[in-house]
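Supplementary Note 3. Input sequence used for the single-chain structure prediction.
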Amino acid sequence: MSLIAFGLLTYMVTTFVVPSLADTHRLFVVFLLSFAVIGLGGDLLKEVVKRPRPPIENALKAKAEANSDTPSFPSGHATKSLSLALPFVIFVPSRKRWIFLLKGALVVVALSVGFARILLGRHYVSDVLGAFGLVLLLLPVLVLACNQYLKRMPVAKLRSAAIVWTLGLLGLAVLLIFL
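The predicted structure, written as discrete structure tokens, is reproduced below.
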């Protein structure tokens, strides 16, 4: 997740240097709220469903000590990774080759996180698919909410808000390294 967050952070910082990218500052709120709201939604759903994790003997040499008592459905890692990457992939225009490559890298990393959770035996396939489905279900609702919020924001405040959102993502990226 920190790799995805740093990829987004690279783009966000670049938008302050390259004037033609400044029109995407409104998307910054979607990036951050997607992670926060959808991630929280996945964590709440996990507590409601309370599905046990796969038996450790099915894992490929996974160690049993890592959070084996936490619920399994949906995969929190898969939910949070895709909720960080997908808004960028969908909403940022690919006018430049490096943005297109960044989008591809984010998709590969987000999907790899889900695959790794299955491969390590920490989740069933349905846990990861459920996480991806949750992101696809909640993202449109979140985008509608963000649009309502951004309609009320004066254009003059957008740049300063984008700086705050970028600093928020920087904090998130650093925090994810230590989790």
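The chain has a mean pLDDT of 81. The longest helix spans residues 125-151.
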